[in-house]
Amino acid sequence: MNNISVCTIYANRKLHLKNLIKGLTNSTALFNELVIVTMNDELPKLLATFPIKTAAINTNNNFLPLAAARNKSAEIAKGDKLVFLDIDCISHPNLIEVFNHHLEKEDALYQGSVRYLASGWQQEQWTYNTLEKQSAPHKLQRKEVTKKNKALHPYELFWSLCFGIKKKTFFDLGGFDTGYRGYGGEDTDFAFRMRSQHIPLYKISALAYHQFHPSYTPPLNHLEEIVSNAQFFYRKWQILPMKKWLNQFAEMGYISLQDNQIEIIKYPTETEIQTCLKNH
Predict the structure, then answer these.
(1) Concatenated DSSP letters for the chain?
(2) Confidence check: pLDDT of 141 > 80
């Protein structure tokens, strides 16, 4: 046993969860458990060949408690090394092995490699061969790392959908800041606090496949959360995150953005939100 716990957070993604479990079943390396924290939702019945530990965080609003849920998963995990996988990730068989190799060698933050599946991929009949053929790396995530190599990675490009860290290091930094409400900003804040403590961020070859799901471009459905979190981030770091989205919101007339100050001018209608939906 490598004393690793895999942590994920869940809301309304039953098929994605089924595929995440299927991927972990194929792991070439042993791990302690899968920890699942639900957010304003209940888990379906689960079948797995490894232990599963669960907890729940429920709120009285529509904002998913992403930061608190990740912290809760780390808190109840028994492994001294943590691998965080978003619910829409399918792990390659060597993912646990690669994370464990690097976490054993150096106390650092490790960003996994992620390939994104297009719409129309074989959601229930997949093989690793079809996953590879139907996916591609994200254009912002730089050159892929191979074998058991590692490469320093910009803190601004840290994404929490696939990463590894020692549990002690995670809590020494306080985990994710729960001052962020819902979607946006908490990833970059977490990485910036790592940088402030001189903890290196590496990209490694631990591979996960991101299952396609419809999304909004720009994420107008998260307007209020993004604005609130950007303001909170600015108060901490004196720079604005998510500038591309904020600029798009400003160009669309939903916010004013001047001298790093943001104000919501109007809220989008449901029809306006749906015009940003991308199904492919």
Answers:
(1) ---EEEEEEESS-HHHHHHHHHHHHT-SS--SEEEEEEESS-------SS-EEEEEE--SSSS--HHHHHHHHHHH---SEEEEE-TTEEE-TTHHHHHHHHHHH--SEEEEEEEEEPTT--SSS--HHHHHHTEEE-TTS-SPP-TT-EEE--GGG--TTEEEEEHHHHHHTTSS-TTS-SSSSHHHHHHHHHHHTT--EEEEEEEEEEPP--EESS-GGGHHHHHHHHHHHHHHHSS-S-HHHHHHHHHTTSEEEETTEEEE--PPPHHHHHTTEE--
(2) no
